[in-house]
Amino acid sequence: MTFLIDEIALATARLAEAGVPSPRTDAEEIAAFVHGVPRGMLHTIKDADFDARFWEGVARREAREPLQHITGRAYFRYLSLEVGPGVFVPRPETEVVAGWAIDRLREMDVTSPVVVDLGTGSGAIALSIAQEVALAQVHAVEIDPVAYGWAKRNILEHGQGRTTLHPEDLTDCLRELNGQVDLVISNPPYIPPGAIPRDPEVRDYDPSRALYGSGEDGLDEVRAVERTARRLLRPGGFAVVEHADQQGNAVYWLFAEENGWRDVRLRQDLTGRDRFVTARLTQD
Ligand SMILES: C[S@@+](CC[C@H](N)C(=O)[O-])C[C@H]1O[C@@H](n2cnc3c(N)ncnc32)[C@H](O)[C@@H]1O
């Protein structure tokens, strides 16, 4: 496999020059995608079978198109999801947020817990819960029609027949479930409108509706999630909300100063940054 190794090395240098953070991995992922094999099987590609479309993929990555748009796939916990233009690429930090919710749902003394994911995007959080929590009934809410289309495809593949998609606004959705939900989770848009992300993959390819929150501080959607969760949850139910690392105190206080909540906690991602707030609706 000397030929492919040499091509990958050349591509790695080009991607590094373009500022791609993980150039070797990305070059190998593109090679694996183009040749239709897992990355660990690249050694089986014969020189004669080298596919020149590798260099088309490398050129797109060099222009800082997200790797996931080039391969059409994003990995989230145990899922391989379809993604592309018009939908937010799920992030590793959200895996921790979803994991916290999954642990609580598994501990709950409820046979078939009812869960709501507000702003589902590709369906990453909702589908992980459906996959990892036996018998969970999951409702995924998404307002954007393009993102809705991606979620629909992923739900068909991974929804376990227990995931329902709703084309609704998270500020006023699912009134039929008022007071009946065991856990509400959300990774809403939260970047303040003036704070433009540095990475071109985010700035130029993630949809603005997924990134930028409304209001001066970008937290209007988080406020809406808090209100919707308070309406939907049964007493003792959990709310789980992701936020930017600098917004931890603001989101903590948003829940702590509302009377309905107890056990409000600010939690960290795997890099130790403040990443999500959890709270329980008061029991009475
Ligand atoms: C940051 S993305 C998160 C997507 C997915 N939950 C994830 O973690 O990968 C936020 C999502 O919320 C959706 N969204 C924004 N405002 C909304 C609203 N008012 N109602 C419902 N969905 C909304 C966006 O279209 C986007 O798909």
TrEMBL record:
CDD domains given in the database record: AdoMet_MTases (cd02440)
Binding sites annotated in the UniProt record for substrate: N187, P188, P189, Y190
Residue ranges occupied by any Release factor glutamine methyltransferase N-terminal domain in the UniProt entry: 10-72
UniProt-listed Enzyme Commission number(s): 2.1.1.297
UniProt-recorded Gene Ontology molecular function terms: nucleic acid binding; peptide chain release factor N(5)-glutamine methyltransferase activity
Domain of life: Bacteria
Protein known as: Release factor glutamine methyltransferase
Source organism (scientific name): Microbispora bryophytorum
